[in-house]
Amino acid sequence: MSATLITTAGSGFDVEKLRNDFPALHQDVHGKPLVYLDNAASGQKPLAVIEAIDHYYRHDHANVHRGVHTLGERATAAYEGAREKMRIFLNARDVNEIVFVRGLTEAVNLVANTFGRERFGPDKTVLLTRMEHHSNIIPWQLVCAQTGGGLKVAPINDRGELIVEEFEKLLTPDVALVAMVHVSNAIGTINPVRECIALAHARGIPILVDGAQAAPHMPVDVQDLDCDFYCVAGHKMFGPTGIGVLYGKAEHLENMPPWQGGGEMIRRVTFDSSDYAAPPARFEAGTPNIAGAVGLGATVDYLQSVGMSSIAAYEQELLTYATEILSGVEGVRLVGTAQDKAAVISFVVDGVHPHDLGTVLDRQAGVAIRAGHHCCMPLMEFFGVPATARASFAFYNTRDEVDVLASAVANARKIFN
Ligand code: C6P
Q: Is position 375 annotated as part of the catalytic site?
């Protein structure tokens, strides 16, 4: 997705109108209108999502898949309806390929402890990239510590782009699985996942994609990608916290052992042995986050009414503008300048620690950014910085907000220098 190729001109995309759907955006912080640029950490929620959860708790709540009574049936229909919405959103072939989980972190842990554990061993490795979030490093490390084997890391260049030729060279017979991020949360790089998936599959290697920062910002089609697993976090998609989705190809899910045991994931139980339910129930032990799923379903409806292609195009325009304005501020250095980039800008400012910058922007200008290592310590080490400041945009952000950010950064630099 190149910034120069797409445009929202003529698409009817009206950012001011869309902003009205998000109550939290309309408030003052320290006496200044909030400028929320921490969307990679979590997105704000449209009224449609808040109201769907409110309605569910006021009228339809009961446990799912258990009650024969009316509320039980309504709650089950709402929960399973949300699964179908997620199937359509990701273009999965079958609704049973959609597993509800607590979030992206749980999705990776689930695959590591089932599919991964069965394939790992002393002579096996998991291939990652240098830009992975800790959620896509630690679960593999934990399982490898028990099974033997270890991690291999595909390198990146100085712009923060995956070096695909090196990635390909690392696809050797010891690799049991590739796990890679679609869009880097820390620097915004959009990885060529489709190409990487094809390269891995050509060698019979399955691949998991961390889609936390892709699904909220661009169309995702798991059949077109042909990934084996795709992980999504609901709260980054402007949905509730505590809910996410693991997409897995049916052929994998059907052959995977359960991870957590409990109610609903079984067919028959005796004290000697038990039989497990088919996917997705096999991986959803216990009472699930029903309201979270309902909210996620409402999020999907909302995002589809705006249009994922329009969202992607608008955010690319905003990224181009923000990159130009911010890199023009004296003392600012951008960290991560990939050609194919989502609307995330990581930067450092001469003489100002990112944490101080984050605090000053909040107190003096009402601007919310994230400062730190963004749960990507190996990536920060690569760039030789302990931390960066990060402005991460959503489709409800505006050029005016970019201007507020840039002048607040310039002021902060004056304060500290
Ligand atoms: N990144 C950020 O500020 P959870 O916490 O399970 O919802 O998502 C984890 C996760 C995994 N992969 C990527 C690419 C992510 O961006 C995140 C969450 C937030 O960048 C919080 S560290």
A: yes
